[in-house]
Amino acid sequence: MGRTLKRIPLGFDWPIKKTWEGYLNPFYKYSSECWGCKRTGYGPDALFLHNAWYSHMAVDLFGNFYGYNILAVPSREGLKHMGWRDDVCNAIDRARKFGFKTLTHWADKLEEADIKALIDDERLMDFTHTWDPKKHWQKKEPPYIPTPDEVNTWSGRGIGHDSINAGVCIRARCKRYGVENYLCPICKGEGQIWCDPKWKKQADEWSPTEPPKGKGYQLWQTTGEGSPISPVFKMLDELCEWAAGNATTFGSFKASKEEWKKMLSDDFVCHKEGDAVFM
User: Which of 64, 85, 117, 140 is the most interior residue, by most CB within 10 Å?
Assistant: First the structure.
C-alpha cells in the first residue's frame, strides 16, 4: 500500500477515500472487466503471483493451509482425496512451481533476483540513492545493493512496495520460472474488453489531471487510482500528528508522529514536483 504527500489548497474538500475524478479515465465506461483476469491483465500464472503478493488475498488462495511449510502439504492427489477444492489445489501447485517455501504472501519474502529486478527498474531508490534538495535523487557511489533481508524488513515495517513494484517482481518471477507469456490470453494484457476500438484509442490518448496545488498538506493513498485519506492541514506537524493516530504505513502497521515526520520531511519531499511518493 503506497502513501503520497500532496500539497493541496486549504479549502480543498474532495471526499476522503473517494478516487480523485481527474484520475478516472472517462472512456473506460465503454469497456467491461475481463472475466479471465479480473482487470489485472495477467495470465493464470501471473495472476496467482499477483494475488499471492497481498496477504489478504493469499489467505483466500491457500485456505486453511495458509502459513504451512509447503513441504508438509500433501500432493495434489492427496489434497483431492481429502476433499479440497480445485482452486486451492491449483494455488498450491503454482506455489510449488514458483518456489514458495511457505504458503503465505510474498511481498516481504523477496529473493536476490527480485531485488535485482527492482533495482534495474530503479524502484528501490531509498536504498540505492541519496536525496539532495537541489540535485534531487543521486546514485550512491560506490553503488549499493540492499540485501533481501533489508528490503523485506523495510517492506514489512514501513510503507513498503506499491503496485508498480509488485508488477516488476511478478514479471521477473514469471521470466525466471519459464512463463513465456504472463499476459491474459483473453484481453492480451489490457484488463478490459472494448466494445469498439475507437474507445480504446481515446482511452489510450487520455491523460490524468492532478488535483489543484496549494499550501495545505494532505496524505493520499496510491492504492487503486488514488484518493485522499486525511484532512488538509496547514502544517506538516499537524498532519504527522493526525497520521500517527489515524493512518497506517503498510497493511496494519502504524508509525509515530516522529516517524511520519521523518518519512514526510524535506529529505523525501520534492518541492518542485509538489508530491512525495513512497515505494
Answer: 117
- Specify the length of the chain in residues: 279
Quick one: how many helices (H) and strands (E) in the chain? 11, 8
Q: Cα torsion at 11, 17, 106, 39 (round to 10°)?
A: -120
- For residue 256, tell me if it sits in a domain: yes
Q: How many domains are there within the chain? A: 2
- How far apart are the C-alpha atoms of 22 and 192, rounded to whole Å? 20
- Residue 96: inside a domain, yes or no? no
Specify if 235 maps to a domain: yes
Determine how many CB atoms are found less than 10 A away from the CB of residue 14. Answer: 17
Determine which of 66-70, 158-162, 270-274 has the lowest per-residue pLDDT on average. Answer: 270-274
- Residue 241 sits in the same domain as residue 262: yes
pLDDT band at 102 (very low <50, low <70, confident <90, very high): very high
Judged by average pLDDT, the poorest of 67-76, 216-225, 262-271 is: 262-271
Going by C-alpha positions, the residue among 168, 159, 170, 167 that lies closest to residue 251 is 159
Are residues 227 and 220 in contact, defined by beta-carbon separation less than 8 angstroms?
yes
> 10 Å Cβ neighbour count for 112?
11
Q: Mark whether 7 and 32 lie in a shared domain.
A: no
Query: Which secondary structure element, helix H or strand E, spans residue 6, and what is its range?
Result: strand 3-8
Is residue 208 within 8 A of residue 22, CB to CB? The reply is: yes
- Looking at the structure, do residues 227 and 257 belong to the same domain, yes or no? yes
Cell representation of residue 123 = 524502484
